[in-house]
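re: ur question from yesterday

yeah so i grabbed the chain u mentioned. its 111 aa long if i counted rite. heres the sequnce exactly as i have it in my notes:
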Amino acid sequence: MLINFEKLEEAAVPHMRGGEGELIRRIFVNEDTRIMRGRLTPGSTIGLHTHETDSEMIFILSGAGKVLCDGEYEPLSAGSVHYCPKGHAHSLINDGDEDLEILAMIPNHGA
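ran it thru and got these structure tokens back, copy pasting raw so excuse formatting
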């Protein structure tokens, strides 16, 4: 299956998961997974949240920032991948001066 993000509607999501600023995203959703291409503007965050029934892999396309995962900060830069397993908590933070562009895959594992 080909997913062309350019054909998906772009939407700005303010205060994603209780975070600061906004996430601008294009997202594919079906019953098994969500696949998102997005960008966090400078100073924006995705708030701390726990993956209860899914996991998340975030590939950094460009920019730099950090993730707070299970209470520990980890630096992120272009080419790095962050993985948050089911049952764990994380937050994505753009503390840089340019957009943090990401590709996120969120497969559903069920309850």
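noticed a couple things. The chain has no helices and ten strands. also The two ends are 26 Å apart (CA to CA).
anyway ttyl
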